């Protein structure tokens, strides 16, 4: 049963595949019969011989039948079409035998149709049809034997011999069986090979589609990847107009989501973001969205303007999606966008993506999410940063930073009671580089810990000389980066260095800003407590600049409070600001903290400060940072 089912399947597939060939065969055969009909009327033009009107009309009729078969296609059942062809063949053969006996036309017609049956018809039907046609000579032999048919003498004696007719009948039957067996065996093999090849081709195409999907699409978002994106817009770039833009979108917060809920959940979020961005492809044919991998996406936008794009970015909010709500994720999704315009900036895709990445670095530094367009000076800034980074690495390794010291003065006595150590750097090729430029580069380059160690070790090496100059009671303030402050075994490192250099911990004050508290406040509380237990003072720097300092002061015991310069600039002219300063001083007094006013630049500020309990100041009015050694 299984073999029969497969044979039927093979035959069905074969018939489907050979149907166009059969139709072309019918069309060609119809044309040949028309040609044969034309040959019958040649005597009319040559005046030689007689026109055989019987075969003329027969050929025309057969040609019409075959052409009709060609037109009907599969509209007529197969059995009807087969028997119509058999009847046509028998009619031709009978007419040939009646007119010509065994002179070949009938034999050729029968042999031709037998082979055609075995090629184009199902196995059993082709064999039965061929056997029916093959007994046709036998029927004529019987008719000759009983003298029901007499052939003219010029056709030959064998046409009136029943033995010849029997021989011809048996020969055709044997020919039918052998031909059928051979053709069907070959056809079976051919069909199996064809089916196997077609199945293989189907599997190859299926695998190719899968491979193409892996090669050209991002597996998480199902968006085109960078390779496909480049291929799609390769031709568009050359024809791009000034109204064409390229945007780079960077999703923030994915790492936090991975940490809170696992990588699989983060991947799911990226997939949902991809589906949100994919809507732009469906709604706007002039927008193409692709994934650059991870949390970055790229958009090709045509027929737009900077104003329209900026408005769309402002309105676009991933958190409006019911699945991506902050309540569900435990974190609000944010994104940064950089953009570049074709023709105006460049028309090379690699160059544009490079410039987009430069603009993205600027976008990441922005406090609010907005679209940052590429500007030429950004590239110069990046090049400068890269060179500075290389020089910074060398400077840190060689410990060749300079340390400038700014005095802290008691305005009541005019004495210097402390110093703040400030890093200064003279870079090759660039000269003096301000701290507000090289410190962010150090932080982004993950050099902050070795930089912090370099500065700390250099400062404590200066302390003996500072004590000789300013007195044994002097305290030196050192700014500590949040990253360095939370570095593993920070306290052990500090105590080890002080012990090794024989420095009294009471001569050290660490200044930390409130951004150090963005991590676990319990850890900060433990570190500060351990430092103070060893005699090291801790100062809360830039008080008033942030928004959570009071909360941290409630949890952690500090020794000193440094009031930010922005709080002190207008105390001489603004009673409101002065009242705020008084309140801060009262708060510090109640907590047992010493207050330091930084950024003092004029006498009017001093007069106001003398009305408060804050008598220690630091600023240009008294001293500027000065490099005392090296």
UniProtKB/TrEMBL annotation:
UniProt keyword annotation of Cytoplasm present: no
UniProt cross-references to InterPro entries, sorted A to Z: Cyclic-di-GMP_PDE-like, EAL_dom, EAL_sf, GGDEF_dom, Nucleotide_cyclase, Rev_trsase/Diguanyl_cyclase
Domain EAL: from-to ranges: 385-630
Keywords from the named record: Membrane, Transmembrane, Transmembrane helix
Domain GGDEF as annotated: residue spans: 242-376
Membrane spanning residue stretches: 21-45, 51-71, 78-97, 103-121, 128-149
A Pfam cross-reference name: GGDEF
Example of a GO MF term: cyclic-guanylate-specific phosphodiesterase activity
Keyword Transmembrane in record: yes
NCBIfam families reported for this sequence: GGDEF (TIGR00254)
PANTHER family per the UniProt record, alphabetical: CYCLIC DI-GMP PHOSPHODIESTERASE PDEF (PTHR33121), OXYGEN SENSOR PROTEIN DOSP (PTHR33121:SF71)
Protein name, as recorded: Bifunctional diguanylate cyclase/phosphodiesterase
Organism of origin: Leptospira noumeaensis
């Amino acid at each position: 049963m299984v073999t029969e089912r497969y044979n039927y399947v093979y035959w069905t597939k074969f018939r489907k595949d050979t149907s166009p060939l059969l139709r072309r065969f019918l069309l060609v055969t119809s044309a040949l019969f028309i040609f044969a009909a034309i040959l019958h009327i040649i005597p009319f033009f040559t005046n030689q011989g007689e026109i055989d009107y019987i075969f003329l009309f027969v050929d025309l009729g057969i040609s019409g039948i075959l052409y009709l078969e060609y037109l009907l296609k599969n509209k007529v059942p197969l059995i009807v079409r087969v028997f119509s062809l058999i009847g046509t063949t028998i009619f031709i053969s009978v007419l040939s035998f009646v007119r010509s006996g065994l002179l070949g036309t009938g034999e050729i017609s029968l042999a031709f149709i037998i082979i055609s049956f075995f090629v184009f018809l199902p196995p059993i039907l082709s064999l039965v049809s061929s056997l029916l046609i093959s007994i046709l000579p036998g029927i004529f032999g019987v008719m000759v034997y009983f003298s029901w048919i007499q052939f003219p003498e010029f056709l030959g004696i064998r046409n009136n011999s029943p033995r010849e007719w029997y021989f011809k009948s048996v020969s055709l039957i044997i020919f039918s069986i052998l031909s059928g067996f051979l053709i069907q065996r070959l056809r079976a093999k051919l069909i199996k090979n064809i089916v196997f090849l077609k199945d293989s081709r189907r599997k190859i195409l299926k695998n190719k589609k899968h491979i193409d999907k892996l090669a050209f699409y991002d597996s998480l978002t199902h968006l085109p990847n960078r390779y496909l994106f480049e291929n799609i817009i390769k031709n568009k770039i050359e024809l791009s107009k000034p109204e064409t833009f390229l945007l780079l979108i960077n999703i923030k917060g994915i790492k936090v989501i991975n940490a809170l809920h696992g990588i699989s959940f983060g991947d799911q979020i990226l997939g949902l973001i991809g589906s949100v961005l994919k809507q732009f492809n469906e709604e706007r044919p002039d927008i193409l969205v692709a994934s650059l991998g991870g949390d970055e996406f790229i958009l090709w936008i045509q027929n737009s303007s900077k104003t329209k794009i900026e408005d769309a970015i402002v309105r676009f909010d991933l958190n409006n999606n019911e699945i991506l709500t902050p309540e569900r994720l435990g974190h609000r999704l944010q994104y940064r966008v950089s953009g570049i315009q074709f023709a105006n900036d460049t028309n090379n895709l690699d160059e544009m993506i490079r410039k987009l990445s430069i603009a993205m670095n600027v976008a990441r530094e922005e406090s609010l999410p907005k679209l940052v367009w590429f500007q030429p000076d950004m590239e110069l800034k990046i090049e400068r940063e890269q060179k500075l980074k290389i020089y910074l690495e060398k400077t840190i390794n060689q410990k060749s930073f300079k340390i400038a010291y700014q005095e802290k003065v008691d305005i009541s006595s005019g004495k210097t009671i402390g110093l703040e150590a400030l890093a200064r750097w003279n870079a090759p090729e660039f000269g003096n580089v301000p701290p507000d430029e090289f410190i962010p580069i150090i932080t982004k380059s993950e050099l902050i810990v070795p930089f912090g160690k370099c500065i700390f070790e250099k400062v404590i090496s200066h302390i003996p000389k500072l004590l000789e100059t300013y007195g044994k009671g002097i305290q030196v303030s050192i700014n500590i980066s949040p990253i360095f402050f939370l570095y593993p075994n920070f306290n052990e490192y500090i105590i080890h260095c002080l012990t090794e250099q024989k420095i009294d911990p009471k001569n050290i004050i660490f200044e930390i800003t409130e951004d150090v508290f963005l991590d676990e406040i319990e850890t900060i509380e433990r570190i500060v407590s351990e430092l103070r237990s060893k005699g090291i003072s801790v100062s809360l720097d830039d008080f008033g600049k942030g928004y959570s300092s009071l909360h941290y002061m409630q949890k952690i015991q500090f020794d000193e409070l440094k009031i930010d310069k922005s709080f002190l600039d207008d105390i001489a002219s603004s009673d409101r600001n002065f009242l705020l300063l008084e309140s801060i001083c009262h708060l510090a007094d109640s907590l047992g903290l010493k207050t330091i006013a930084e950024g003092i630049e004029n006498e009017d500020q001093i007069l106001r400060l003398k009305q408060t309990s804050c008598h220690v100041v630091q600023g240009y009015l008294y001293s500027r940072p000065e490099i005392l050694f090296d």
